[in-house]
Amino acid sequence: MKTIEIIYEDKNVLVINKPSGLLVHEEKQGSAEETVVSWFIQKYPDAKGVGEPQFDMQGNLIERSGVVHRLDKGTSGVLILAKNQPAYEHLKAQFHDRLAHKEYHAIVYGYFKAIKGRIEAPIGRSKSDPRKRSAFKTAIGTLRDAVTDWELITQNAHFAHVRLLPKTGRTHQLRAHLTSIVHPIVGDWLYASKEQSESTQEVPRILLHAYALTIALPEGEEKKFSTELPSEFTDFITKKINKKETP
């Protein structure tokens, strides 16, 4: 099991720094792969069953105790879990009503001509790859409204470090939105082009990190939880971005 850092806990919630490469919950019943949830219910057995039932593609119940929101397997960063059902209901309402504020950091391909912007494009499924979501006009299936604000932190001719402030929480939202403006995330082999992936094949993971979460806890206090950028980010910034070049 990858090391899971506990950022904060009380009787109602647990906030962790999820490592890259670890699933939040199993994708099908009986999977032997370790997950955040398997670690969580081993550490807090009373939390087993907290949440709402969810089923795999075969209709089997999957274990997702405590999960209020999720991060993709490759994404690292702040994740909050509910220890009891009232806490789950409270946190779920915070996310549903868009009262929880999330901040991500990403390293992306390409050069930005502006310092900030908004991506407002509905997300559906990719016509060419069922594993992917799409914010292009060719997207198929149910289209869900999605909004992402972005701010440039630093860049050179080839790569940029950006802050991402999603206003909605769609599956693969940041990955699909950034791809739609021709700035896929470095290390994202699913969305980046073959040429882009080959140019950064030494990068061991997708460079997307859930940097901070601001949310009102069940007892009413609003808190902001944040983490440091992982070493993969700081190394890439030092070696690749801080070598300034003009496009």
TrEMBL record:
EC main group: isomerase
InterPro entries: PsdUridine_synth_cat_dom_sf, PsdUridine_synth_RluA-like_CS, PsdUridine_synth_RluC/D, PsdUridine_synth_RsuA/RluA, RluA_PseudoU_synthase
Record's keyword annotation contains Isomerase: yes
Active site, per annotation: D72
UniProt-listed Enzyme Commission number(s): 5.4.99.-
Keyword line: Isomerase
Database matches in Gene3D superfamilies: Pseudouridine synthase (3.30.2350.10)
Membership in a protein family: Belongs to the pseudouridine synthase RluA family.
Name of the protein in its database record: Pseudouridine synthase
Species in which this protein is naturally found: Candidatus Kaiserbacteria bacterium RIFCSPHIGHO2_02_FULL_49_34
